[in-house]
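Customer ticket, subject: "Can you confirm the structure for DUF4383 domain-containing protein?"

Message body: Hello, I'm evaluating your service for our small team and ran a test protein. I'd like someone to confirm that this is what the system normally returns, since I don't have a reference to compare against.
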Amino acid sequence: MSNLQKLALGYFVALMIAASLNYIPGLTDENGLAFGIFSLDIYDDALHVASALWALVAGLLSHRAARSFLILFGLAYLGDGIFGVFTGYGFLDLGIFTNRSAGFDVSLPRILANLPHLGLGGLAVWAGFRSSPE
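Agent reply: Thanks for trying us out. I re-ran your input and got the following:
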């Protein structure tokens, strides 16, 4: 098993944890915000589970599948995080299509709300493009 396959399996775990955040007592506040920073709904949970299953299949399948997952997933999540900083909403959950732009904001809450997608997406893109196809 290659390092990229192991990383894809790590993404499976991380994404399943993300999908479970709303269901762990004490992690959401009275406003439904996870860690008091961002809200997750059933669409976000479905997106995280679908991405996790993609990561699992890619990680178990092959180095090439894991690399493709990391690049494609990474670009999608990184782009979603960038849109989140610029508009307040991402595109993966269709938020930019269903909400008016909240405008560009580099406040700490906006950055923290988008940091998971920026970080996970950025790491995946870097790892996928850094590795050589096998």
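A couple of notes from the result: Helices lie at 3-20, 42-61, 63-87, 95-98, 108-130. The chain has one domain: 3-130. Feel free to reply with more questions.
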